[in-house]
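Today's session is about reading a structure prediction critically. Students often jump straight to the picture, but the first step is always the sequence itself: look for stretches that repeat, for charged clusters, for runs of hydrophobic residues. Only then move on to the predicted structure, which in these notes is written as discrete structure tokens rather than atom positions. Here is the chain we will use throughout the hour.
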Amino acid sequence: MSLVPMKELLLAAQKEHYAVGAFNCNNMEIVQAIVAAAVAEKSPVIIQASQGAIKYAGIAYIAALTRTAAESAAVPIALHLDHGTSFEQCMSCVRNGFTSVMIDGSKHGLADNIALTKKVIEVAHPLGISVEAELGKIGGTEDDIKVEEWDALFTDPDEAVHFTEATGVDALAVAIGTAHGQYKGTPKLDFERLKKIVAKVSVPLVLHGSSGVPSEAIQEAIAIGVAKVNIDTNIREAFVAASRRVLNADAGEIDPRKVLGPARDAATEIIREKIRVFGSSGKA
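Below is the predicted structure for this chain, in token form.
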């Protein structure tokens, strides 16, 4: 199956009250794991590449790997840029066959975020490419921020209305208490804020930094209205732990296939588990 725009996956999820998993890839084995999990669960899926992944693997390799995997898979797959920081990077992804891009202008003021998002949309939409944006700040788990300071960085529901109407964006990443990376404790999500956003905004909402968030909390966010859930750290943890087990069992092992094969299998299993949590199994 050819790669599809992310928008069509999220609109279906929003309508039927499940979420599509967006899983970060960094190499061939993780691309294979994401697709294998989606096929096994008969689920739509989003493969996404971050700044680090593009720098490490190269944008052409990521695009070619994902396109090849999608062509042999009987489930819909979108290829998405995660946290694009500039118009130029988004256009590079467009030229390389991505079917969706995220332009993250959250570090800018509201007006500049809107202007940057609109600039990307003006090029992407005529080509059938979906655009995600972010409003509020989704920090890292190492950020030294107090609770009241976190609250000031959360997505404002009224700003979300203005932003989505002004830009025509296809999906909006909201800040309601998640963070990127490994959590030191259990994150607490602001479900009341999420309800207010859902009541005011019609576009599908995205939950970033979802690794380490309890499954029950993710499912509650989906029940309220989240349609896309991002997972990266949990995949890395499973992948590296499996590799480490092989090497600890045989320090003399030199065959990459015997190290990376089990790592790929472990990544597949954690992705399948997340797909079931998100409720997208059988929705392909």
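Discussion point for the tutorial: DSSP finds twelve helices and eight strands in the chain.
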